[in-house]
Specification:
Keywords: Ubl conjugation pathway. The chain has 750 residues and is mostly helical. The protein is 52% helix and 5% strand. The radius of gyration is 36 Å and the shape is elongated.
């Protein structure tokens, strides 16, 4: 039955249960592989179905494939290890002893080669005659490694029963093709996207070959006349695929192939007299006149592939009732393209683009088309090109009332694949190069990712989303950050993640990214700072700093990890620094427990300078306004004294620890009336960033009047010598920078 519409078959449900409980039903051999315990004799078809189910469930590997070593219980005929990590040794032990009729070993990762597969199969005399269908798509054939068996070289020629051989996307060579074409019963051969350069070897199977597929031969080097000479002798050939990838670059212009396709269309019906199916999609020199000649001369034609040729709207095609066509002229052609080209990304992309245009105004439910869209997505799970266009088509097909008429399981699959697209987009964004250097609308991207985050709790996706947000927020302009900071929803989302990770005791990258985003979002942004307080962010941060223990049993499990994790403390204190810079929010920070904790961090020589720096910034801002101080004056005096004492023990930092949008929050701290501890912290901070990036900050100091404040401090006789020395050092850096750039401008002119 159709799983997307009706209920699943009972046999499928039973096999799914076997897969889920496989570990409990098996014992282990000495090599770690599994063996079924007390298993009955499986019907032969059920054994094939179990293997297929293990493949689709993603559980087939060297360990689990071991259950098929027992041929008395599980007898395989039609086997598949497609895309499964099965080694050559495990393959030989588990599958080669069976009397196989079919094997699909396409796209197997982990180093198994086509040579391993062929030599393994050839080691079983039964397989040499029983195997009729073999698929090795996507493998390295490693043909030169094949050994000799009793003086005879092992190769495809040993598998005398082969009728169908699929070798697309392999390193198949002309020499290996010659070996293949000696097979006495070969009927179907696929050499698409291989290294084959010429096709004369096909004459070796000219009396048996009925279907030949040669899509996008990357190194094809035959003249049109030479190719047509070979084709003219393939008297049994009924299907020929000589299509090309029109998106491909770097493989030459395909001119000879395109010309050969044109000449084939215009040639005599005596050329390939048995032909009923021809695919030349993607070929560039096809004309409507040639198509008309070809179709009118072949009354038995049942299929013609014309996608991306520009001639699929030829009028002769619509007059052939039994002829199926792939193209873009109408819905039937586009849907036929999606059905036939499921495994070819270039054609799936092309067909989906045209399908989107055809379904823009659709007013009837079309589950049949939606299934084709999902099939294309399933076949290309990592292709952003396919998924982005496919989701647009899915939107057209499920909009408004159309979704209600769709089978529920089909809609479930649609939603699942839409989520995969979002995941792929996040993966694409999780690139330092893209986030840092590629120009795009970072404000829009940040907004979209934040909104997306609210409805997804998957830890992996959440981590990626928060990482992207933390970088994007730091890249926004001041105006964009101000606009973003007005939205209290954003603050709630990020604080919820902090709370979730804190409650779980996880000081992981997700927590760190969320803290970074909040820190950047509140940097000189009073609206964001107010939202932080309104959303009880201060209480949450106090829990992270272990001051307010709302969850004492949980916090005790990880309290030491937070205390010894400088990156966590630095981000928390950095944000509180931003809060302390907002005068009407300073009262919220005037809690004795909080200030005592921050003071302890400032004083502790075991704590990193980066953490002590931000602790000092909070305290300096709060004690700089005596009129707003509401706590004990002795505490304020202690803070002022400890600021000076602690700062003088700090060593200079080589790595860039902090950056500033402006020095405006420093101006009140640099007034000559401020206590020395407050002044010293501000001057030390200015000196730190200027020593790391003088060119950027020197201009900012001049523009914002900070150099005048430093000059005033340096000139006053009552300024502490420590402060005077740092102030003069900063002024020298500014002067040196001005002198350098002044000379540069004089040399280069206006």
């Amino acid at each position: 039955c159709d799983e997307s519409i009706g209920p699943r078959a009972l046999s499928d449900l039973c096999l799914a249960q076997v897969c889920r409980s496989l570990d409990s039903q098996c014992s282990r051999r000495a090599d770690g592989s599994m063996s079924l315990s007390r298993a009955p004799l499986f019907p032969q078809e059920t054994a094939d179905q179990l293997l297929h189910r293990m493949v689709t469930a993603g559980i087939l590997n060297d360990t689990t494939v071991g259950i098929f070593r027992d041929r008395e219980v599980l007898r395989l005929r039609r086997a598949s290890i497609r895309c499964c990590p099965v080694s050559a040794a495990a393959f030989r032990l588990a599958l080669c002893p069976h009397r196989l009729q079919e094997l699909d070993a396409s796209w197997v990762p982990g180093g198994i080669s086509g040579a391993n597969i062929v030599s393994g199969l050839a080691s079983n005399p039964e397989c040499r005659s029983s195997l009729q269908r073999l698929s090795l798509n996507g493998l390295c054939l490693d043909w030169e490694s094949l050994d000799e068996d009793e003086g005879v070289r092992v190769g495809f020629g040993c598998l005398q029963g082969l009728r169908t051989l699929n070798l697309a996307d392999t390193d198949l060579t002309d020499a290996a093709l010659e070996d293949i074409c000696t097979l006495p019963q070969l009927e179907t051969l696929d050499v698409s996207c291989s290294a084959v350069s010429e096709l004369t070897a096909l004459l070796g199977c000219k009396n048996t070959l009925r279907s030949f597929i040669a899509h996008r031969l990357r190194q094809f080097d035959m003249s049109p006349a030479g190719l047509l000479l070979v084709l003219s002798q393939l008297h049994a050939l009924r299907h020929l695929d000589f299509s090309d990838d029109h998106f491909a670059v770097g493989d030459g212009d395909g001119g000879d192939g395109d010309e050969a396709a044109r000449q084939l269309l215009e040639g005599s019906p005596r050329l390939l007299p048995s032909l009923v199916s021809l695919d030349i999609s993607g070929r560039k020199r096809v004309t409507e006149a040639a198509v008309r000649v070809f179709v009118e001369a072949r009354s038995g034609l049942v299929f013609l592939g014309l996608l991306a040729t520009g001639v699929s709207s030829c009028d002769v095609l619509s007059s052939q009732g039994n002829l199926k066509v792939t193209g873009e002229a109408n819905e039937n052609q586009v849907c036929e393209s999606l059905r036939r080209y499921r495994g070819r990304e270039c054609f799936v992309r092309e067909a989906l683009v045209h399908l989107y245009n055809l379904t823009t105004d659709i007013d009837k439910p079309r589950p049949d088309i939606l299934k084709l869209v999902l099939s294309g997505m399933q076949s290309h799970p990592t292709s952003l090109h396919v998924h982005l266009v496919a989701t647009a088509c899915a939107f057209n097909l499920t909009t408004q009332d159309l979704a209600e008429a769709m089978p529920v399981r089909l809609l479930t699959s649609t939603v699942t694949h839409h989520q995969q697209v979002q995941k792929n987009c996040l993966l694409a964004l999780c690139s330092d190069y893209i986030l840092q250097d590629v120009p795009f609308d970072k404000y829009l991207a940040a907004t979209l990712v934040i909104n997306w985050l609210s409805s997804h709790e998957d830890p992996t996706l959440q981590r990626m989303a928060v990482a992207v947000i933390s970088v994007l927020v730091a890249k926004l302009s001041t105006e964009q950050t101000a606009q973003l900071s007005k939205d209290v929803f954003i603050m709630k989302q990020l604080l919820a993640i902090v709370q979730q990770r804190a409650m779980e005791g996880e000081a992981d990258s997700t927590l760190k990214f969320a803290l970074s985003a909040l820190w950047n979002l509140t940097d000189e942004m009073p609206n964001a700072a107010h939202n932080f307080i309104q959303c009880q962010g201060l209480e949450l941060y106090e829990e992270v700093l272990e001051i307010r223990k709302r969850f004492p049993l949980i916090l005790c499990l990880f309290s030491q990890s937070y205390y010894t994790e400088p990156s966590i403390q630095q981000k928390v204190l950095g944000l509180l620094n931003n809060i302390a810079e907002v005068e009407d929010l300073q009262a919220a920070l005037l809690e004795e427990d909080l200030l005592q904790h921050v003071l302890a961090l400032l004083q502790d020589p075991q704590v990193e300078v980066g953490v002590r720096y931000f602790a000092g910034g909070i305290l300096a801002q709060l004690v700089s306004r005596p009129e707003a101080w509401t706590l004990d004056e002795e505490l304020r005096a202690t803070i002022v004294k400890e600021l000076h004492t602690s700062i003088m023990t700090w060593t200079s930092l080589e790595r860039e620890m902090v950056s500033y949008r402006s020095f405006q929050p420093f101006c009140p701290l640099l007034q000559t009336c401020q206590p020395s501890g407050v002044q010293l912290w501000a001057v030390w901070a200015v000196h730190l960033v200027c020593s790391q990036n003088a060119s950027h900050y020197s201009r900012m100091l001049e523009k914002e009047g900070v150099t005048e404040l430093l000059k005033a401090l340096a000139a006053r006789p009552d300024t502490h010598s420590d402060i005077r020395g740092l102030s003069e050092s900063v002024l020298r850096m500014v002067e040196q920078h001005q002198s350098h750039w002044g000379g540069f401008n004089e040399r280069n002119g206006p």
